[in-house]
Every structure is written in C-alpha cells, then in structure tokens.
Write a structure and sequence with these properties.
The complex is a heterodimer. Chain A is an all-beta fold. Helix content of chain A is 0%, strand content 48%. Chain A has strands at 5-7, 10-13, 19-24, 31-37, 44-50, 53-56, 65-68, 75-79, 88-95, 105-106, 110-114. In chain A, strands 2, 4, 5, 6, 9, 10 and 11 form a 7-stranded mixed beta sheet that branches. A 4-stranded antiparallel beta sheet of chain A has the order 1-3-8-7, with no helix packed on it. Chain A is globular, with a radius of gyration of 13 Å. In chain B, strands 2, 4, 5, 9, 10 and 11 form a 6-stranded mixed beta sheet that branches. In chain B, strands 1-3-8-7-6 form a 5-stranded antiparallel beta sheet, with no helix packed on it. Classes of the chains: A mainly beta, B mainly beta. The A-B interface holds A 40-45, 48, 50, 55-56, 89, 91, 98-109 and B 4, 8, 31-32, 34, 42-46, 49, 51, 88, 90, 92, 95-102.
C-alpha cells in the first residue's frame, strides 16, 4: 500500500513570494490534514478536511494561507505572501476517518525556507 | 486551551535499559491516545495507540493509560541506539488531535 505522497520535498523562497505544496493521501483515507512543524516543536494543525469539506481550520492564518481538496482526494496548501516565520516543515497526514481511534499516517514533509 | 505536555528531555538511557516517556493532557473528554516516533529530519511514524485504561504491549513497547490521572506513558524495554529519536504524544478528543512537543531520547551504546 502506497503511503502519503508530498511534493516538493524542499523549497527555498524569498519573503513575499508565494509557494504551493501538494499532497496525495493513502487511497481510501477520507480525512486529510496539513500540519506545520517548527524545529523543536510538535506538529501544529493548520487545516483538516473530511472528504472535500473543511472540518477545522481554526489555526490557519487565512490572510496568507489557503488550502483546497478538490474531489476529496489530493490537496494543495498555498502561502501567499510568505513571511520569514513561515520557515518550517509542512506535513500532510491522512486517516480513514476523523472520529475516535483516528490513526494518522504522515507523508515525508516539505521543508520550507523563507529568506 | 486544550494542552498536551511532555518533558522535552533529552532523556538519556544506556543500551539495554528501560526508557520511560511521559505525557499529560488537559481535556478529560479525550478518548484516543497515540505515540509517534520522529527521527531527525524525518516525519512522525505511528508506533502505538491506546484507548482503554491499563497497559498495551507491542514487542518492546508498552503504552500505559490512566484517564483518571490524565496521564499516558510509553515504556521502551531493552532500549537500542536505533530508538534514539523524538517521541511525540498525541491526544484525540472528538475530531481534534493535539500533539505534544515531544521528548528527545538518546540511547547510549
């Protein structure tokens, strides 16, 4: 069974530029998550989708971050314009559902450096 | 504000010893608890899940849950240098999962 796929793996941009990340979840997984992980911290949820609907985006900085999951499968996360503090690893995860006993499986992540 | 607390470490144990990692959480309604292992530069990997009070064993790993004390722990028996990593505790209540900041474990050969 293929795991969660993400691209690109690394990205370096200058502040005020835009960037987009792509994620393809495990086949059959209804729930998709985007996390931001800053060095030395745990993953912080940015947005959670159930199929193609948003379950939780309370911590997404909506003035600069956007995400979509068209057709309920793969997803893109965009940052526009980027700030220095957006330098982090962006992790995508998926799970079968979003109710109890919700084991999440992570992709390899995208390491973003904003200069 | 729902929180998950872990000692950041580093926790250093000799090879062959038992490593004990602890996690406390604030939301009494939490129902599902997970331990993830994260090697440096890699993404988190699920190693254990536990849903009921008591112990759950899987190979060298034992997860322990005490909902009354809002406490979950992970024991690693016969620790190996390859166990050196950051261990993340994750707690789910409803549809929300919150991750702790992780405990760094070093196993000395």
């Amino acid at each position: 069974e293929a795991g969660v796929a993400q691209s690109p793996r690394y990205k370096i941009i200058e502040k005020r530029q835009s960037v987009a990340f792509w994620c393809n979840p495990i086949s059959g997984h209804a729930t998709l998550y985007w996390y931001q992980q800053i060095l030395g911290q745990g993953p912080k949820l940015l947005i959670q989708f159930q199929n193609n609907g948003v379950v939780d985006d309370s911590q997404l900085p909506k003035d600069r971050f956007s995400a979509e999951r068209l057709k309920g499968v793969d997803s893109t996360l965009k940052i526009q314009p980027a700030k220095l503090e957006d330098s982090a690893v962006y992790l995508c995860a998926s799970s079968l559902g979003s109710h109890q006993r919700n084991e999440q499986f992570f992709g390899p992540g995208t390491r973003l450096t904003v200069l | 504000q729902k929180e998950v607390e872990q000692n950041s470490g580093p926790l250093s144990v000799p090879e062959g010893a038992i490593a004990s990692l602890n996690c406390t959480y604030s939301d009494r309604g939490s129902q599902s608890f997970f331990w993830y292992r994260q090697y440096s530069g890699k993404s988190p990997e699920l190693i254990m899940s536990i849903y009921s009070n008591g112990d759950k064993e899987d190979g060298r790993f034992t997860a322990q849950l005490n909902k009354a004390s809002q406490y979950v722990s992970l024991l690693i028996r016969d620790s190996q240098p390859s166990d050196s990593a950051t261990y993340l505790c994750a707690v789910q209540g409803g549809f929300k999962t919150i991750f702790g900041a992780g405990t760094r474990l070093f196993v000395k050969a």
